[in-house]
From TrEMBL:
One of its GO terms (molecular function) is GTP binding. One of its GO terms (biological process) is cell division. This is Septin. The lineage of its organism: Eukaryota, Metazoa, Ecdysozoa, Arthropoda, Hexapoda. It is found in: Cytoplasm. Its main location: cytoplasm. It comes from Euphydryas editha.
Amino acid sequence: MEQSESYAILDINICDKDSEKTDNNDNKKKTPLTTVIKIQRERGERDYIGFATLPEQVHRKSVKRGFDFTLMVVGESGLGKSTLINSLFLGDLYKNRKLSDVQDRIEKTTTIEKKTMEIEERGVKLRLTIVDTPGFGDAINCEDSWRVCSAYVDEQFRQYFTDESGLNRRHMQDNRVHCCLYFVPPWAHSLRQVDLEMMRRLHRKVNIVVVIAKADSLTAAEVKRLKTRILNDLEEHQIQVYQFPECDSDEDEEFKQQDRELKAAAPFAVVASDTVLEVGGKRVRGRQYPWGIVDVENPRHSDFTKLRTMLISTHMQDLKDVTQDVHYENFRAQCISQISQHAMRERGKLKRDSMGNNTDVVFTDTDRLLLQKDEEIRRMQDMLTQMQEKLKASDKKHDSIIDV
């Protein structure tokens, strides 16, 4: 008896209390421990829905589709734009380029030159498009150098808006300019008039990142002084360059420190080189001078590494997001507003024509109110056009002399 009672007590202890059942004879039926564990395991599996794999699904789909990035480089000839692009993306996009003669630059105008290359790194594909602007700042009269660049950015927005409004949107190609590297010569004491005019026309359409070219021709004190003057000029003329987003509070300290360093380095003073040299047993990209070697990836010599980190490693997606959410949305809102105004004018014209052809047409109060609103909008548009013409005339008076 004693053995059976101890066995019963032990059996009750290892059974789940919720699993005890009572039959008609008030005898307790006990569920074995293995069955209880199996039931609990099944309950746990039912609690796991599976949406935690969504990031992996998005990652696989994005990698399969690939990424697009368009970079515009603006600056006069001889500032090392081609060398910088080749150094950033470890390629040679300008192997067949021919330099123009001095005589050709007298009447040379700004043109657009596109180059596209496919880059793959660790299974991730990037379709990189470089939009170069040869001829910018090379002519004697640089008054209209900004027109070609601004027209190109608008044309890409317009094409994307047309594709987005069409029926077949599955294979849309994003050729919008996501970033503009604007090169400032090192011999300038601040931003020139042509620089200010160009940035003023583009800063609401594209993300502008200012780059001080050939920084190895300046001392550390001169670089610091030039950066301060550029920032002051941008603030004085209310030109908005690309603003780094704020770090989230849950980011690690290393990422926050890197973000602070990138923000403090802008505008970036860079030295570029596609020549590999051997220094102290290591192969580095640099420039050989009689007094030593400039290592372009050394942060004490150049901001090249910081520019590459910002442009490719940390903020490439944010540049695309700002282009989509800010610059393109502004352009899209303007297009929709123009379309709606045109539709209202056409509707008012049809009503006026019908009223002129048929004197017996009866207009409701709503129709009369719409006609009054159309007339009011037309008067406001005429006033706005006159104000814009006056502003353009005043701008031409103030900007008649351009410092080249």
